[in-house]
Design brief:
heterodimer; A: mainly alpha; 3 domains; two-stranded antiparallel ribbon; 5 strands; globular; disordered C terminus; B: alpha/beta; 2 domains; four-stranded antiparallel beta sheet; binds adenosine-5'-triphosphate; binds magnesium ion
């Protein structure tokens, strides 16, 4: 299949789908107005990125025209179909989209001036007006937004015109500079000496350092570092057998050394962040087995986290409820861990047994119920004598390993403990996935009754997924108890279940690397249910962003950030086939089986 | 004749309080091709599920090689050579053809034997080999039928239970399909076909039963059944 060379056609600068572009512009405007009224610009304005020109608040608005401009210029390239020559046409189209989008924001500025809608819309208030008017006059705001938006959108569309090399260099410069600014706390925490050199007094890159950083990133990218990395990746993916095995070992070794060494040289903030990521990573790995591999949509997964946390707390803390009989011992942390694992496994069986016979939506709803029931039991008056209700169990002692004590005030120790468990969980998941059990889960996920007819013991296998998931979650609960030093029912809200599920879905269901990436990106950057991430300012909008991300992923990349080969084949098969058909690889009647053969 | 491979002795099956199979008796001998005919909801699929242990009879016995296997799990029967091609083929639609075949051999441990059987399937259905990486749900109806049979063969069956193999296939394909079944039969595998399409099934079968609201009402050779006026009236659309 040789792709025939088809000439590019040149079209005039106004020869494009104007109505489509106007629609796109309105969509952009809608997005800008929504972000404004959701309050992002106000909430994030205090975080200065580049002093004094850019705050996170403005960034929350201006990225959108840029992306829209780029998107307006993307065209599906079909082999054998003439492409349009890039040029002024793209800029005009991008500019139009941006102009209309910005005009919507101008309209908002005017409307905010004329009407008072503060009652339903809390952010319809002077602070937002001030930001949208750049702290100047109404006229200034009204005039500047369409222009700014058009320029940004033009720039986005312009990316299609420049050569790929310059494009990637430009993007690296922009993204790297923004990353340096956004992750300031993290960077300063790791490399203290950069603080005075790069960043201004109240935070934010100085204009000077921003320019230096951008130029540096541009040059490095232009030299071709990015391309070399990409080539290395392709080489790795294409290598086979022994080479691949040794390369994989190398990669794992490098990754292992990095995670072990980095926390030694970083400050507390980073260590704390790593510890939080780790705790949620453990949960996500467990849920990945239940949802990703066995296909059981468990919405009450937090229950096992709670059971793990409470069991550890009861067995280690002197402040457990007064009603416990005296034969229930107070154990050191690792002793409690063994009991915790056993009890979580049992609870997994106990909750799993009735639930496992249901399918699909029923199962999801019932597990959701169980998740809440467990929390409410811990909160209840009835069991107050055991779990102290809302007061929770305090004074959970650190996990004492002789040489080191794992406790919340030393996040590094927590991180290393989590690392050990993560290694165990990853190994267990990996082995299970490739075993007969893994194949049974795959069959159950796809079609339970057929799996049964093939001889899969569906009830046992599903229970097993539940129990393994419960045990992995209990690791997390046990570490959590030692880290926080106290356990309350409010740590185990349904929100935890949902966030872990989002991590698994966004990372890539059924895919260990995906789950790791998902945890780092979501928990590390945005933050967990209560734990702040790198973008602490976002905590107020965390759920909004989680939701938006989830929807976007479902529409555009249902296989997750890091797809595994099978899932992506499953989900994009239609597109592959269509492409193949367009290329003429599949003849029309391939699907209408010949009879006379 | 020698001992039956698979037997139902006086089996009654209930779903809840509903009585589905009523005193069903049937026997399948090694290497023969037999069929069970019956109209909608007469209990044909239930018979297969009972034979395979997916449903436990309320009374009576399922017997394999002279051993009573009533109440044994499905895996016990599959391991001993009883395999089913489910109604409507039911491939694992989102998995590749290869994965479907591999799952057919789920209970087996002998990697070499599995590879050999995979080759055997390819030589029987060359078409399947070409489509190995394709997602099973996107195969054509005829190809899906081949993969469904291939998947069943991967379990090394001695008796293949087929639930309405001609259902949902284009009329032209039904004939090819029965040729495939005969091809498998020629390898010495006993076949038990459950069908509404009585004409076609009887044309290749040695013997057959007719099931009516859960009761076996006729039990005879294929030729005798084809000649039976009652059957002709109710199943072959003659008046
Ligand atoms: N799981 C079940 N629970 C309750 N009733 C069931 C169940 N499965 C089947 N039935 C009922 O048992 C009766 C026989 O069903 P069965 O599937 O065996 O029919 P069939 O002969 O295979 O019909 P068809 O030719 O339409 O496939 C039907 O009335 C059906 O509704
Ligand atoms: Mg049926």
């Amino acid at each position: 299949m040789t792709a025939e060379q088809v000439d590019e056609v040149t079209r005039g600068p106004f020869d494009f789908d104007i109505r489509g572009s106007m629609r796109r512009g309105l969509l952009l405007g809608l997005g800008l107005v929504f972000i404004s009224l959701a309050g992002l610009p106000i909430g994030l304005d205090t975080r200065i990125l580049i002093k004094p020109v850019l705050s996170l608040g403005y960034l929350s608005l201006i990225w959108l025209p840029f992306i829209s401009g780029w998107a307006s210029g993307t065209e599906t390239v079909l082999d054998g179909v003439a492409t349009t020559k890039r040029g002024a046409r793209d800029l005009v189209r991008g500019g139009l989209v941006g102009l209309i989008g910005g005009a919507c924001l101008s309209l908002l500025v005017l409307l905010m001036n004329w009407f008072d809608l503060r009652d339903p819309l809390v952010n319809w208030a002077p602070p937002l007006s001030a930001i949208l008017q750049f702290d100047r006059s109404i006229a200034f705001g009204v005039l500047v937004w369409p222009l700014l938006s058009a320029v940004l959108s033009c720039a986005g569309a312009g990316l299609h015109i420049i050569t790929p090399k310059i494009r990637s260099a430009t993007l690296s410069a922009v993204l790297f500079t923004l990353a340096m600014a956004i992750f300031e706390t993290f960077i300063v925490d790791v490399a203290d000496f950069l603080d005075d050199k790069l960043y201004g007094q109240n935070g934010g890159l100085t204009v000077m350092s921003a320019i230096v950083v951008a130029c540096l990133a541009f040059t490095v990218s232009a030299i071709g570092l990015g391309r070399r990395v990409a080539t290395a990746r392709v080489n790795y993916q294409q290598s086979t057998g022994k080479t691949k095995a040794s390369q994989t070992t190398m990669l794992i070794a490098i990754a292992a050394i990095t995670v072990v060494v980095v926390p030694m040289i970083t400050g507390k903030i980073t260590q704390e962040l790593f510890a939080n990521i780790g705790i949620f990573l453990l949960l996500a790995l467990g849920l990945n087995i239940v949802v990703g591999l066995a296909g059981i949509l468990d919405l009450g997964y937090v229950a096992f986290f709670a059971v793990g946390g409470y069991t550890t707390a009861v067995l280690t803390s002197p402040n457990r409820g007064p009603d416990w009989p005296s034969w229930v011992p107070t154990l050191p942390w690792w002793g409690a861990l063994l009991v915790t694992i056993a009890i979580s496994g049992l609870v997994g069986l106990f909750i799993g047994a009735p639930v496992i016979r249901m399918r699909g939506d029923y199962l999801a709803i019932v597990t959701l119920g169980f998740g809440e029931i467990i929390r409410i039991l811990f909160l209840s008056d009835w069991l107050n004598g055991y779990f102290n209700g809302a007061q929770g169990i305090t004074n959970v002692p650190p996990a004492d390993f002789g040489i080191i004590q794992v406790k919340g005030t030393d996040p590094r120790s927590v991180f290393y403990l989590v690392l050990v468990f993560a290694a165990i969980s990853i190994y267990v998941s990996w082995r299970l996935e490739r075993s007969r059990v893994g194949r049974a889960w795959m069959a159950i996920r796809e079609d339970e009754s057929v799996a049964e007819a093939m001889g899969v013991n569906t009830v046992n296998m599903k229970l097993m997924a539940f129990v393994v998931g419960a045990i992995l979650a209990s690791f997390s609960g046990a570490v959590f108890a030692a880290k926080v030093g106290s356990i309350f029912p409010t740590s185990f809200l349904i929100l935890v279940s949902i966030i872990i599920l989002v991590v698994v879905i966004v990372g890539g269901m059924g895919n260990i690397i995906g789950v790791i990436v998902g945890s780092i990106v979501l928990i590390g950057v945005l933050g967990g249910p209560k734990q702040p991430g790198l973008l602490a300012e976002f905590s107020q909008y965390k759920l909004l962003i989680y939701g938006a991300l989830l929807i976007w992923m479902m529409l555009r990349r249902p296989e997750g950030l890091v797809p595994n080969v099978r899932r992506s084949r499953e989900l994009h098969q239609e597109e592959f086939l269509q492409d193949a058909w367009l290329r003429g690889e599949i003849d029309d009647d391939a699907n209408t089986e010949e009879v006379d053969s | 004749m020698d001992q039956p491979l698979l037997e139902m002795r006086n089996v009654n099956t209930h779903y809840g309080a509903v009585h589905i199979l009523k005193d069903v008796e049937l026997a399948i001998y090694p290497g023969e091709l037999v069929c069970l005919l019956g109209g909608n909801a007469s209990g044909k699929s239930t018979t297969l599920k009972t034979l395979l242990g997916m449903v436990t009879p309320t009374s009576g016995e399922v017997v394999l090689d002279g051993e009573v296997v009533t109440g044994q799990p499905t895996s016990y029967l599959v391991e001993r050579g009883v395999t089913m091609v489910p109604e409507n083929r039911r491939l694992f639609k989102r998995l590749s053809v290869k994965e479907n075949l591999e799952l057919g051999a789920y209970l087996r441990d002998d990697a070499d034997g599995i590879d050999a059987d995979m080759e055997r399937v390819f030589s029987m259905f060359p078409r399947v080999k070409e489509r190995l990486g394709q997602r099973a749900g996107t195969l054509s109806g005829g190809e899906q039928q081949m993969v469904a049979m291939g998947r069943a063969l991967m379990a090394q069956p001695r008796v293949l239970l087929m639930d309405e193999p001609s259902m949902g296939l284009a009329p032209a394909l039904v004939q090819t399909n029965f040729e495939l079944i005969q091809q498998i039969h020629n390898e010495g595998i006993a076949i038990f076909i459950v069908e509404q399409n009585a004409n076609m099934a009887l044309s290749i079968a040695d013997r057959g039963w007719v099931l009516q609201t859960g009761r076996v009402v006729l039990d005879d050779t294929a030729d005798a059944l084809l000649a039976n006026p009652d059957l002709r009236r109710s199943y072959l659309g003659e008046t």
